[in-house]
Amino acid sequence: MANTEFYHQLEMDAAKVTWKDIFSECREKHTREDLEYALLAGTSLDSATEENMLKKWRKPWVFYPLLKSGLFLVAMIYGLLYASLTFFQGVTFLEMVHVIPPLIIPMIVMVFIWELNIPRNISIYDLTAYFLVGGLLSFFALAVMFWFVRGENAALAAFREEPAKLAASLALLYLFSRKKKVYGLTGLVIGAAVGAGFGGFESVAYAMSAGQNGIWYAVSNEIIRGIFALGGHTVYCAPYVAAAALEMKHSGFSGESLLSRDFLLTFACSTGAHFVWNSNLFSELGVIKNIVIVVLLWIELLYMARKCLEQAVAIGRKRQKASERDPVVSYPHAGSIRVECVRGAGMGMSIRSFGNKPLTIGRGEDMA
């Protein structure tokens, strides 16, 4: 589905947008130039504005080669581990085994959600910072939550960890709002980064702890947690932070952000799913329980992604129409020319000359 058709569907009936529509370009062939363009998002070299962000945005695809590369890397690590134990009677890279595999899936899901960001106002560097800082902040908030929610029952972790991730996400969202405009997609991305950081670091800790029971027990633990990280903390956190961001009027945070119907609904759904996941409820279903929860979490994520994408498209269309109504743009002087960049970092940016005023493209004679 082309972008124009996708935007039209969001405007007409966002509820009909499916994951198939969003994933429709991930398996197409892309060039290195496409990758470089995608990674320019949010940097000083990116020329995305509200007027042209709909032209500049591309559907998610970077996550897909990252997923294949990540799985290949994990297979290599486990292959090296097997060779080391079988032929060399030793393991010299336990840290690699315990640290890299648990981080792969949370980070790839985070990158996928980052690619949904139509305003392109968060760079890959910022995303990495939110992943690291947000993950650590959420663990600090978790330590505070132990004062309020006590008990060793694993199911109670949902009532500590979700508020902790929310607190860390809101802190980062507030800092973001001091410099840039907040959209619902901003919250979706920051929530995903915080959730990925928390879930990834937690899985690393579990992997190291499981290693005390034997290396292959740790590997099996990593593989199982890696598979179910598709519905882990990244997907728990992103929807309710997005719901809070959608209510940030003029990028300002207020209590209303946490009282909206969507926030209360998504926070309750994520916390409830987390509680059921950790509890003995429906344990007779075995792995089917976990699969059902993962599916429900992605339905919740799609619900908020639709609302956030719809908001961004509405803003983009409004600014496009305002630009078209500008008399300077609509009725240029006789003899004027207009140059629009269609490829590369400046894609979507246009330059106009009026009357006899010269327009220089490239370096002028007075430039080195």
Secondary structure class reads: mainly alpha
The fraction of residues in strands falls at under 5%
Cα end-to-end separation: 45 Å
Gyration radius, to the nearest Å? 23 Å
Please summarize the sheet with the most strands.
Answer: 2 strands, antiparallel
Binned, the helix content reads 55-70%
Mean pLDDT over all positions: 87
User: Could you spell the SSE succession in H and E letters?
Assistant: HHHHHHHHHHHHHHEE
Number of helices: 14
What does the model show?
By secondary structure, this protein is mainly alpha-helical. Helix content is 63%, strand content 2%. The protein is built from 14 helices and 2 strands. The chain has helices at 3-13, 19-22, 32-39, 53-56, 63-87, 94-115, 124-145, 157-177, 184-210, 215-228, 233-246, 261-278, 287-325, 327-330, and strands at 337-340, 350-353. Strands 1-2 form a two-stranded antiparallel ribbon. α6 runs antiparallel to α9 (184-210), α6 (94-115) packs parallel to α10 (215-228) and α8 crosses α11 (233-246). The two termini are 45 Å apart. The model is unreliable at 327-334 (pLDDT under 50).
